[in-house]
Write a structure and sequence with these properties.
Elements (H helix, E strand, L loop, with lengths): L1 H21 L10 H26 L4 E3 L12 E9 L1 H5 L6 E8 L2 E9 L4 E6 L4 E3 L2 E2 L11 E4 L9 H14 L5 E3 L4 H10 L4 E5 L3 H14 L2 E3 L12 E5 L1 H11 L3
Parallel strand pairs: 1-2, 8-9, 8-10
Antiparallel strand pairs: 2-3, 3-4, 4-5, 5-6, 6-7, 10-12, 11-12
Helix pairs in contact: 1-2, 5-6
InterPro entries: Inositol_monophosphatase-like (IPR000760)
Cofactor: Mg(2+)
Keywords: Hydrolase, Magnesium, Metal-binding
Length: 261
């Protein structure tokens, strides 16, 4: 698995290098959603095609998933779950908070993940049972309590069509914000969750089903030693309606606050 993880990292880094070279220095001047989608597709489609070619050569028998909106994922076999430009809004806005992600699923569970943020010089990698690394070095969460925690949260891409997720997102922010120095949204979900594992963030939470975006970070954070559950403290699964990743010292405190949601 180590050789496959290294080869996956090389493929992801190369796609990221090309994308970074094409990112505009100024925000995209798009007057309509259609114009923004067209501009993004012109960049993302070639990158996704290259990523699929490179990873397909590494695991010819594995299937391919590239739908970040998917709520149901295959339960059998091997599948690549990838996003060539995770963080489209940031990419088009000339911001650095975007990533290239690649996750190999086996029978519905992630067995390796790479989240590479070219503009931030950060590459998070993990294989199931092998720990997590940041830029090749082992990483782990930092010991924190909520009073010293930098927290992060986000929403699924289809949150507008999920009124309960919208309600819970607002209630959770109201519950957590008075107890932490800051709550941020720092770009792609997978990258934010990975940063819990590396200690750059203390905790992350989200409401609403979002397996495609949560699976890469869930493996990276768990392999680093973070606690990964749903908001009730149960083991997180791709079908869960909530997600929490936190440093061990802050996890129980966060769950206590989320009981009010």
């Amino acid at each position: 698995m180590r050789d496959l993880l290294d080869a996956t990292e090389r493929a992801v880094r190369e796609v990221g290098r090309r994308l970074a070279a094409r990112q505009p220095a100024e925000p995209l001047d798009a007057a309509t959603p259609a114009e923004a989608r067209a501009a993004f597709a012109a960049v993302d489609r070639p990158a996704a095609r290259e990523l699929r070619e490179r990873l397909g050569a590494l695991r010819p028998g594995a299937g391919w998933l590239d739908d970040e909106w998917a709520r149901e994922l295959p339960a059998d076999g091997e599948w690549w779950l990838c996003d060539a430009t995770d963080g489209a809004v940031q990419y088009l806005s000339a911001l650095p908070h975007w990533a290239v992600t690649a996750t190999l699923l086996r029978d519905g569970a992630p067995v390796l993940a790479v989240v590479h943020a070219p503009r931030e010089g950060a590459t998070h990698t993990a294989a199931a049972g092998g720990g997590a690394r940041l830029n090749g070095r082992p990483c782990a969460p930092r010991a924190r309590v909520l009073a010293t925690a930098v927290a992060a949260t986000s929403q699924p891409p289809d949150a507008a069509r999920d009124p309960e997720a919208v309600r819970a997102a607002g209630a959770a922010l109201s519950a957590v914000l008075p107890h932490v120095p800051a709550v941020r949204n720092l770009g792609p979900t997978a990258l934010q969750v990975a940063r819990v594992g590396s200690g750059h963030l203390t905790l992350f939470w989200q409401y609403g089903a979002d397996p495609a975006n949560l699976l890469p970070g869930a493996l990276l954070a768990a392999e680093a030693g973070a606690r990964v559950t749903d908001a009730r403290g149960e083991p997180w699964t791709p079908a869960a309606r909530s997600f929490v990743a936190a440093a061990p010292g802050a996890h129980a405190e966060l769950l206590g606050l989320l009981r009010a949601v």
